[in-house]
């Protein structure tokens, strides 16, 4: 995973979401990144696969309010609708929250599924559900979308296939039972800050490339000696492949270029927003260009049991509106939107009725999810909720169906089975059906 720190947010569960799976520094070419790459040796043997659809997943950790974003209810009593007004979209009769004006004008570039519903209103288990498409099971950890795509599609050039920006949402966002080698590569730091650089792509301070190459030669000599001593050990025999991948990442001009946001025009960086979320969206676009297949941006802080409207108006919605809308526009302007699926989701919605603390509590009955690019139909509103946005009024969509749609757009056979550690065959997708209105 790449881990761009988008701030540490504490949910009502009381646990700070901290990334606990991260790639260590590449000391003398590193010992952790090669391990991450090990499972992709078979892809390396086959050569670089043809580039196809990528995915940028914008995950709103904490659970965003459907009423205050993409499913406002301006006609109901204020104790439900809250103080926010609405803004018309390009489509007659379709409105978004007044604090999403740019997304309202970009609605031709994505679709909104208003009728997603789930039985799970607990943070950690609901995160697992939305990030994997599988209901939570304490006996097994299912793999996230990016991990499956990494396993199915492998590398494109020197870039890891699966990356993650922001805090890891508990442990759910990993490769689960497939093993740590398919976990995402994480980026640390804030891309909106001056001097931003990515660990494991830049050699350690004081280690120039000449010394770096010398260390590589020394490691090669030690490996060759070790192979002579123990040729039967598979991990020793194949270690060169994994170190080569790590070396390629560290020394690759294209990798360095992908992470260098300063190459972007100031005007474009301003369009995205000079904040963590906006610059993370810009970096995600650059990573797609460089060959990364799946990128998750975890934008936390949506667990708004108190002070919901101030948190949204003055903190969360403006960066979302600017960064998300500009990402869609930028991808389209570069001819990349048709081959880049952009998904917006959280783990559940919020209660229609405002609580005494001017907040909204957990509500999995009605959830909004957005999708655009990657060949899915845009400008479509799928389903609707009842007058208070409590439950689907028409066309209920399950989380499994959302997952099936993502896999369909990514060209992954969701009926394919993997073998679990317990030697049980498990489908990539639980039992979802792609959302036909979008396919």
Strand arrangement, major sheet: 6-5-7-1-8-11-4-12
* Cα gyration radius (Å): 22 Å
Average pLDDT over all residues: 83
Provide a count of the helices: 14
Give the CA-based shape: globular
H/E series, N to C?
A: HHEHEEHEHHEEHHHHHHEHEEEEEEEHEE
The percent range for helix content is 25-40%
Please name the CATH topology. Alkaline Phosphatase, subunit A
Q: Which class best fits the helix and strand makeup?
A: alpha/beta
Give the strand tally. 16
Low-confidence stretches: 1-5, 16-50, 229-243
- Name of the level-1 CATH class: Alpha Beta
Q: How many structural domains are formed by the residues? A: 1
Distance between the termini: 29 Å
CATH architecture: 3-Layer(aba) Sandwich
Description:
With 439 residues, the protein is an alpha/beta fold. The chain has one domain (27-427): Alkaline Phosphatase, subunit A. It contains 14 helices and 16 strands. The protein has helices at 33-37, 41-46, 78-81, 101-105, 123-132, 145-153, 209-229, 234-237, 239-251, 253-258, 266-272, 276-290, 308-333, 399-410; strands spanning 54-60, 86-88, 95-97, 111-116, 162-165, 185-187, 294-298, 340-346, 349-350, 362-363, 367-372, 381-382, 384-385, 392-394, 417-419, 425-427. The strands form five sheets. Strands 6-5-7-1-8-11-4-12 form an eight-stranded mixed sheet, sandwiched between helices. A two-stranded antiparallel ribbon has the order 2-3. It is globular, with a radius of gyration of 22 Å. Residues 1-5, 16-50 and 229-243 have low confidence and may be disordered.
